[in-house]
Amino acid sequence: MTAPKTPIREGRDLLTPRPLSVKRAVNPHASGSAHLKMGRTEILATITLEDKPAPHMRGSKEGWLTAEYAMLPRSTADRQARERNLQNGRRHEIQRLLGRALRSSMDLKFFRNQTLYVDCDVLVADGGTRVASILAGHAALHDFCDHLINTGKLSDWPILHNVGAISVGLVGDEVRVDLDYLEDKVARADLNVVATDSGLLIEVQGGAETGPISMQEYSQLLTTGVSAVQGVMKDMARQLAAVH
Hints:
Catalytic activity: tRNA(n+1) + phosphate = tRNA(n) + a ribonucleoside 5'-diphosphate
Subunit structure: Homohexameric ring arranged as a trimer of dimers.
Mean pLDDT: 90
InterPro entries: ExoRNase_PH_dom1, ExoRNase_PH_dom2, ExoRNase_PH_dom2_sf, PNPase/RNase_PH_dom_sf, Ribosomal_Su5_D2-typ_SF, RNase_PH, RNase_PH_bac-type, RNase_PH_CS
Shape: globular
EC number: 2.7.7.56
Strand order of the largest sheet: 1-2-3-5-4
Protein name: Ribonuclease PH
Structural class: alpha+beta
CATH superfamily: GHMP Kinase, N-terminal domain
């Protein structure tokens, strides 16, 4: 069997993520919002604060954060049908990942008896939509919290950790950061690494695709992923600070 061709990257080396750009306060109706581009992948994230506790948080001293994820019909080459009632397994899995990642970033004691909704909509998909959604969600939460501080609704910054994510994979024998769609299709293994800008690990999702990999390869993927998240978060912090 002929081995799959190794995709050639345009304008970046194997350990460099795709170009990142983020703009916040892009939706005037949302409590916080951000538009994020990572290569050709584009995400719109919005924040809604509801003065109602999640059912399982009634009586708790903390609020709750939940996330929703959707791909717009023409975010891909073929039209994605809108989901009306039942959600597919992939979407449900991604929503749970987003919720866990973004909850870990927040001090929810500031939102007692309230629920934060983070809605992430994929405008254009070219691989890495779940990690890009975590980044967009974090940027939208930053915008939301900045507004609360500037309007005097909060005196303390409620974001405990700056949380980001990146994909990392083995394409042939090469470790590559931030796989696009063509690379993801032929990767021997790929991980989605969620971590903080200080290098603390939150979650790892993924594994081997075409056969087992060694512990050394897995460790290399993980270490590379955490380091790449730190670099991406440094770039994001610079862009968020430049927007007022």
